[in-house]
Amino acid sequence: MYKSYSMELCGRTLTVDVGRVAAQANGAAFMHYGDTVVLSTATASEEPRDGIDFFPLSVEYEEKMYAVGKIPGGFNKREGKASEHAILTSRVIDRPMRPLFPKDYRNDVTLNNMVMSVDPDCSPEITAMLGSAIATCISDIPFDGPTASTRVGMVDGELVFNPTSAQRAVSDLELTVASTRDKVIMIEAGANEIPEAKMIEAIFAAHEINQKIIAFIDTIVADCGKPKHSYQSYDVDAELWEDMTSFIPGPEMEEAVFTDEKQVREENIRVLKERLKERYEETHPEWIPMLGEALYKYQKKTVRKMILKDHKRPDGRAITQIRPLAAEIDMIPRAHGSAMFTRGQTQICDVVTLAPLSEAQKIDGLDENETSKRYMHQYNFPAYSVGETKVSRGPGRREIGHGALAERALVPVLPSPEEFPYAIRAVSETFESNGSTSQASICASCMALMAAGVPLKAMVAGISCGLVTGDTDDDYIVLTDIQGLEDFFGDMDFKVAGTHKGITAIQMDIKIHGLTRAIIEEAIARTREARFYIMDEVMSKAIAEPRQTVGKYAPKIEMMTIDPATIGDVVGKQGKVINRIIAETGVKIDITDDGNVSICGTDADMIAKAMKTIEIITSDFEEGQVLEGTVISIKDFGAFLEFAPGKEGMVHISKMSDKRVEKVEDVLSLGQVVKVVCLGKDKMGRFSFSMKDVK
């Protein structure tokens, strides 16, 4: 049966249609927010997937170009693989949803969000987040929801909720907060150095709005929600667990995992697994396929107990202690900028490349306000960085997400295109990984940018905090600088990047049903203290401030402004003039419609020559101006000179020498370069030039 539900959300109407479309999905919500339309569906397989030890959740965010009245580019004229923006949105939808499914659920679940219409003032991303929550809540899929999401901006120091397109364009904050009934379950933020106190205020202001949305979702579920279906549990067999924990007592497992060397720990666990296989291969062979999951659970229980009750970390560090740090620059000699940042067994080398603004990345998506970006941050995670062997098949969702997080953290401190007219690409290569490579990427990238001569407004560092919780909200411990094991077995990965002044990016992943305000405040305070230490004690000692000039291998760029009416003169018919300047100087020239000219090259003299040529082409001659011209035509009465492509003038035979000249050929020849002075305009309004009056 078709039913429709509505509420007012941040000044616009949110409408949810249930039973109108996609009736064969387990749950479907046809979402309308203003003129934004998103179809959100939740489907689950009837049977669990065999041979896996994880919950197989897939989240899709499909951008249909008809949603903004566009035909897709490219040869096929249809949507292809997901854009980076779509992938990042899928990750944001996934993060608050995944913790609310049963941990032992093995049925495939797909949350699909198809964007069919975009109102620039009503975020399709937020609409899809709400749609996924509603579709899952009303379905028969086991889910401990609902969850709700709100976006927060800050304009002129004031918080705005689900900001309009105009507000987003001038906002100093782009924050997305997802909540359950009682707690915050996801935070994603980019910010222009927002103070910690203001960020906390924004998070919990959004949390209050989310409670109103959750109440709205509750009314929908109460009216048309389906009963949740039963499922086959894949929890560890109780008899196996009892035998394993008695055969390998707690102190022995503690000894196996209590080391700061990842390879040693993995070898210790491998030995334990072999012992268990030998024990069960005759008596309980059916248990052997379960050993991986059982040992994982045993390690997790051991690590969590050590941290929460004993305040002992696997590598022996104190709760607030950061692993050993190292930083250096200029690792790659021919690169425009490079730096390496090491934190324990996490090591990132970042390489920066500078190029003309014309090399900025073009974006073909649903956001009409963003058609290109000049700063591109990319992150690579090869298998060898974790001691594994795997064929590289290009960046996955994780790599794209980590690159975007580092990019978001550094954008607020980049100089404007007017201050630094370059497109910038930073590539973070993961050499070794054991926890929070994304935050190490931010540190390495900041140093590489400064080494490349990019005049950053401030230094940026990033760090991650973890969490282990007990049975009550007050029973928890926050860990500074988590390594991989603490991430795997802990409850939170709270990443914060920023300057001394404030926060530039946040990304929070959790595995539990939300965080209290006390935990969030402590995590933000811890990351502030840690990033100050990283910047002041480590990064600043490698490079304290940006270099004054770009490196010798980097292109040099000069900017000039011309009258837009003269752009055609510089370009010439079919590009002949500009192509000739490029051929003669070896530079690259880009001209915008408003007359801004960018000249890029590696030879400063050639850049200066190109600038001088364009200056001559675009300006009128002035009396007394001394120029150099090339003889291009000889007549009986004088010679024509070219001062720049398409810019010519004539020297009368009487102005060639103090002595009488019988024939022009006696003084000049084709191709000869001579100096002349402009005498102003003659009686017919034409400029005349003289060789003999040059002083």
UniProtKB/TrEMBL annotation:
<dbReference type="Pfam" id="PF03725">
    <property type="entry name" value="RNase_PH_C"/>
</dbReference>
<dbReference type="InterPro" id="IPR036612">
    <property type="entry name" value="KH_dom_type_1_sf"/>
</dbReference>
<dbReference type="InterPro" id="IPR015848">
    <property type="entry name" value="PNPase_PH_RNA-bd_bac/org-type"/>
</dbReference>
<dbReference type="GO" id="GO:0004654">
    <property type="term" value="F:polyribonucleotide nucleotidyltransferase activity"/>
</dbReference>
<dbReference type="InterPro" id="IPR012340">
    <property type="entry name" value="NA-bd_OB-fold"/>
</dbReference>
<dbReference type="InterPro" id="IPR036345">
    <property type="entry name" value="ExoRNase_PH_dom2_sf"/>
</dbReference>
<dbReference type="InterPro" id="IPR012162">
    <property type="entry name" value="PNPase"/>
</dbReference>
<dbReference type="Pfam" id="PF00013">
    <property type="entry name" value="KH_1"/>
</dbReference>
<dbReference type="Pfam" id="PF03726">
    <property type="entry name" value="PNPase"/>
</dbReference>
<dbReference type="GO" id="GO:0006402">
    <property type="term" value="P:mRNA catabolic process"/>
</dbReference>
<comment type="similarity">
    <text>Belongs to the polyribonucleotide nucleotidyltransferase family.</text>
</comment>
<dbReference type="InterPro" id="IPR020568">
    <property type="entry name" value="Ribosomal_Su5_D2-typ_SF"/>
</dbReference>
<dbReference type="GO" id="GO:0006396">
    <property type="term" value="P:RNA processing"/>
</dbReference>
<feature type="domain" description="S1 motif">
    <location>
        <begin position="624"/>
        <end position="692"/>
    </location>
</feature>
<comment type="function">
    <text>Involved in mRNA degradation. Catalyzes the phosphorolysis of single-stranded polyribonucleotides processively in the 3'- to 5'-direction.</text>
</comment>
<feature type="binding site">
    <location>
        <position position="493"/>
    </location>
    <ligand>
        <name>Mg(2+)</name>
    </ligand>
</feature>
<dbReference type="GO" id="GO:0000287">
    <property type="term" value="F:magnesium ion binding"/>
</dbReference>
<keyword id="KW-0963">Cytoplasm</keyword>
<feature type="binding site">
    <location>
        <position position="487"/>
    </location>
    <ligand>
        <name>Mg(2+)</name>
    </ligand>
</feature>
<keyword id="KW-0548">Nucleotidyltransferase</keyword>
<dbReference type="Pfam" id="PF01138">
    <property type="entry name" value="RNase_PH"/>
</dbReference>
<keyword id="KW-0694">RNA-binding</keyword>
<keyword id="KW-0479">Metal-binding</keyword>
<protein>
    <recommendedName>
        <fullName>Polyribonucleotide nucleotidyltransferase</fullName>
        <ecNumber>2.7.7.8</ecNumber>
    </recommendedName>
</protein>
<dbReference type="Pfam" id="PF00575">
    <property type="entry name" value="S1"/>
</dbReference>
<dbReference type="GO" id="GO:0000175">
    <property type="term" value="F:3'-5'-RNA exonuclease activity"/>
</dbReference>
<dbReference type="GO" id="GO:0003723">
    <property type="term" value="F:RNA binding"/>
</dbReference>
<dbReference type="InterPro" id="IPR003029">
    <property type="entry name" value="S1_domain"/>
</dbReference>
<dbReference type="InterPro" id="IPR027408">
    <property type="entry name" value="PNPase/RNase_PH_dom_sf"/>
</dbReference>
<dbReference type="InterPro" id="IPR001247">
    <property type="entry name" value="ExoRNase_PH_dom1"/>
</dbReference>
<dbReference type="GO" id="GO:0005829">
    <property type="term" value="C:cytosol"/>
</dbReference>
<dbReference type="InterPro" id="IPR015847">
    <property type="entry name" value="ExoRNase_PH_dom2"/>
</dbReference>
<keyword id="KW-0808">Transferase</keyword>
<keyword id="KW-0460">Magnesium</keyword>
<dbReference type="InterPro" id="IPR004088">
    <property type="entry name" value="KH_dom_type_1"/>
</dbReference>
<dbReference type="InterPro" id="IPR004087">
    <property type="entry name" value="KH_dom"/>
</dbReference>
